[in-house]
Amino acid sequence: MKHFHVASVMLALSLTSTMSLAQSTTDYQDQAKLHDIAKAVSPERIEADIRTLVGFGTRHTLSETESDTQGIGAARRWIKNEFEQISQACGGCLEVYFQAKTISGETRIPDATEVVSVIAVQRGSHDPNRYVLMSGDIDSRISDVMNSTSISPGANDNASGVAGTLEAARVLSKYKFNGSIVYAALAGEEQGLFGGKILAEQAQKDGWRIKAVLNNDMIGNIEGINGVINNTTARIFAEGTRQTETPEEARVRRFTGGEVDSPSRNLARYIDLMADRYIPNLDTMVIYRLDRFGRGGHHRPFNDLGYPGVRIMETNENYNRQHQDIRSENGIDYGDTIEGVNFEYAAKLTALNAVSLAGMAWAPAPPAKVEINGAVKPSTTLNWQALDPKQNPQLKGYKIYWRYTDAPQWQFSRFVGNVNSYTLDNIVIDNYFFGVASVSQDGAESPVVFPGAAGAFGE
Ligand SMILES: [Zn+2]
Questions:
Q1: Does Hydrolase appear among the keywords (predicted)?
Q2: Number of C-beta neighbours around residue 40 at 10 A
């Protein structure tokens, strides 16, 4: 998102009102560590991992599991071993495990099949039950979604996402965080989003406080089906109103707003700002949809349970290279082969994930129980629950953000200190959307939380 320059327009109207409004986002404190993280992501390691994953021939969910060189069994064991090696290099900082469930009787999984994801958790120091997740998908497919034996490289869809997730783990495991980070290589995506569903449901059962899911699905293609070739943009898909919204919550939202401020949207805005700040030559497009038109991805099972989650992916998709038998027809090469992946670009999107995960895991938890009032008053008051100082010893205080109702990104902000209520004098509630973020001593910020159920990131 390009930055808005509202102040110059307003100067002509009134200098004093400009001063009161334009507390711009420039008071954000640049984080040197996040620049280091972005630079540490390696296109060469991502390339090597994609080549290894492609080398398993097919990673179809129903493919064979016994071979050590071919099929999804070999692929998941290799991924688990990679995470274990990363963990060894950081003194055992990752908890690595298979997460398996037997699925049967489904259209795309008719016979009993173990769907097995690989999960690695980097446990946070003070708030270990607060999670941010990055995911990619292990499985691949070709034209016939049930073909589990033919070559199915799935280089971009979605070896790129798994390779990015492994690389983010390599880079971030060199640091310690306040909250936990989960790296997930999910299975069964093409057969019906099973791995994501299994992880989301288990997380809910175990009471994980999930604040962000960054689902990476196809992060390496820069040559669009429409002829556009561009490696400087990416898309963040984020749904609008929450899937778990009750009729009563919808009624409240109708009168107070929030249809463009679900936690998934404000997670997307957070990542969008991270791209502006830390990733050279990358501008993200926040797309106000759950996913591509009529299509799905592994963030959805998390959204279904009310967790904030987005899909991060390339801007320019090439359908000749997705879900296709490898072949040549009328001079067009079909198939998701390694030639369709740009490793520098995949590294750029991986870096975007890494700085976003790190920023959130270093920041205090997003504020909970945010409320707002100010109807028929000259001023707007926000209040929120105090964060637990044991879980958030790094807390410096809170920052209120606001923007015009038709602006896509937060425009104004004010750091208000370690308080739990604040009144913005002479700022009329009707004319803006508001939210609150938490800020650490060294400037790491949480996503902005829009008031009420519509915007809540949970406790
Ligand atoms: Zn796919």
A1: yes
A2: 14
Query: CA 437, CA 399: separation in Å to the nearest integer?
Result: 5
Nearest in space to 395 (alpha carbons), one of 407, 383, 387: 387
d(CA 360, CA 263): 14
Burial degree of 234 (CB within 10 A; 0-12, 13-18, 19+):
buried
422: which strand partners?
A: 382
Q: Residue 336 Cα, ligand 1 centroid: separation in angstroms?
A: 10
Q: Is the pLDDT of residue 157 over 90?
A: yes
How close is the Cα of 295 to the center of ligand 1, in Å? 10
Report how far ligand 1's centroid is from the alpha carbon of 199 (Å).
Answer: 19
Ligand 1 centroid vs 294 CA: distance in angstroms?
A: 13
pLDDT at 27: 80
9-18, 253-262, 352-361, 365-374: least confident range: 9-18
Q: How far apart are CA 89 and CA 93, in angstroms?
A: 8
pLDDT, mean over the chain: 94
What mean pLDDT comes out for the span 45-53? 98
Retrieve residue 191's tokens.
Answer: 């057969």
Tell me how far CA of residue 268 lies from CA of 172, 276, 434, in angstroms: 21, 13, 16
Tell me, yes or no, if the pTM score tops 0.85: yes
Q: pLDDT tens for residues 372-405?
A: 999 999 999 999 999 999 999 999 999 999 999 9
Q: Quick one: pLDDT at residue 1?
A: 56
Helical axes 71-89 vs 160-172, angle rounded to 10° = 20
Q: How many CB atoms lie within 10 A of CB 102?
A: 10
pLDDT at residue 130 is higher than 90: yes
- Quick one: CA torsion of 190, 195, 200, 205, rounded to 10 degrees? 150
Cα–ligand 1 centroid distance for 190 (angstroms): 6
* Residue 80 backbone class (left: φ over 0; alpha: ψ -120 to 50; beta: rest): alpha
